[in-house]
Amino acid sequence: SLLLVPFRSRSLSFPSLQVIIGAETITANGGLLAYEGTHGLCLAAEQLAVPVIVCSGLYKLSPEIPCSYELDTFTHMGPASGIVKYSEGEMVRSANCIFPIYDYVPPNLIQIFITSNETFSPSTIFRAVDDHYFNH
Fold first, then answer.
1. Residue 102, Cβ neighbours under 10 Å: how many?
2. 131 φ, ψ to 5°?
3. What is the mean pLDDT of residues 54-68?
C-alpha cells in the first residue's frame, strides 16, 4: 500500500514507516551503490526521521572504500537512449546525453543492513567484508 503525506504534515510521527531498499554493491565503509534516485530517497528519509534498511546478499559486499574525490566514479553514467529518442529531431540526434545509472549512498544515511546470514550496522559492515574476503 502507498501512503501519501502532504509536506505540511511532515512533523507527524509514523513509527512503523521504513524505507527498504536493495543495493547493487555494498562498500566496506558501509555505503552502497544503488539505482539512481536512491540517494535522494535516503536524504528524504533522513529529513523525516524514517529508518533506511538495506536488504542484500553477502555476494554484493565489496572490499573497496570510496574516497571523497572518487565519488563521481561511483556514480556510473550511461546513455540516455532509453529516455531520449534520438530519432525525434536533428538537435537530439547530435546531442551527447548521459544520465546516472547508480547513486552512491553514504553510510550515514543507512540504519541497518540485512543479509542472508545476519544483520549489520554501517559501522560494522567492514567486519563482514573482512570475513567474506580475507578470512576463509
1. 20
2. -65, -40
3. 84
